[in-house]
């Protein structure tokens, strides 16, 4: 799959140019993986020289990759709805559906997130873990009224999010054509985890 074409930035707009470098990098790293991506191809897509990429990202390819992962994780985190004005009965299925969308596609940001979560690189894994923790805190805020639950609840919710990720990825790999069943399964596991561990947090 070819790297998505980026609209070339004006010379006078360095922030737009930097954003475009990250956007193109997200698509490239998600599509082919870190080892197969070369900075010169990203530079070509954005319409700059490889030297300019090093100007924005002194650490070169590894730094650009980290920034792409940070953006991917931030976008996933931003998808989670925790507004107290929305009933939990509406928020939970909508939140689960959004993340199942990402996993079943899978989107570029999902690929980068999942790989980073399992990475041996501490910085990459820290980004992914922080995203999972932020979502976990949102779930706790939605269902328990606090973003700082007990350690037991925190551990259970951390595991539930891992269940969501792995089950969705396996659903896609096995080509199971029953998305509502997957979403209901994830919500059932979430409710069971909260019921079993959250009595002291209510």
In short, what is this structure?
The protein is an all-alpha fold and about 200 residues long. It has nine helices and no strands. Helix 8 runs antiparallel to helix 9.
- Runs in which pLDDT lies below 50 for 5 or more consecutive residues are 1-7
Largest sheet: none
Mean pLDDT: 91
Q: How many strand units? A: 0
**How many domains?**
2
Number of helices: 9
> From the helix content, strand content and strand pairing, which structural class follows?
mainly alpha
Fraction of residues in helix: over 70%
Which word captures the global form? elongated
Oligomer: single chain
Q: β content, as a range? A: under 5%
**Termini distance?**
49 Å
- What string gives the helices and strands in order? HHHHHHHHH
Tell me what you see in this structure.
This protein is an all-alpha fold. It has 2 domains: 14-58, Arc Repressor Mutant, subunit A (Orthogonal Bundle), CATH 1.10.10; 81-197, no CATH class. The chain is built from 9 helices and no strands. It has helices at 14-32, 39-46, 50-56, 61-78, 88-104, 108-117, 122-144, 151-173, 179-197. Helix 1 crosses helix 2 (39-46) and helix 6 (108-117) crosses helix 7. The longest helix is centred in the middle third of the chain and has 23 residues, at 122-144. The radius of gyration is 19 Å and the shape is elongated. Mean pLDDT is 91; it is low at 1-7.
């Amino acid at each position: 799959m070819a790297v998505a074409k980026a609209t070339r930035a004006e010379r006078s707009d360095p922030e737009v140019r930097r954003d475009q470098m990250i956007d193109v990098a997200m698509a490239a790293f998600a599509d082919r993986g870190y080892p197969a991506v070369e900075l010169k191809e990203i530079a070509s897509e954005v319409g700059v020289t490889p030297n300019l990429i090093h100007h924005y990202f002194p650490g070169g390819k590894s730094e650009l990759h980290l920034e792409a992962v940070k953006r991917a994780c931030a976008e996933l985190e931003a998808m989670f709805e925790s507004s107290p004005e929305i009933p939990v009965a509406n928020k939970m299925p909508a939140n689960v559906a959004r993340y199942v969308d990402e996993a079943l596609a899978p989107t570029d940001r999902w690929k980068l997130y999942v790989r980073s979560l399992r990475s041996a690189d501490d910085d990459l894994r820290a980004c992914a873990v922080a995203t999972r923790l932020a979502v976990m805190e949102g779930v706790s805020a939605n269902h328990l009224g606090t973003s700082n639950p007990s350690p037991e609840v925190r551990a259970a919710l951390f595991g539930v999010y891992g269940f969501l990720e792995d089950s969705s990825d396996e659903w896609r790999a096995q080509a199971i054509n029953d998305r509502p069943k997957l979403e209901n399964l994830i919500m059932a596991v979430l409710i069971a985890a909260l019921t079993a561990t959250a009595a002291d947090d209510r």
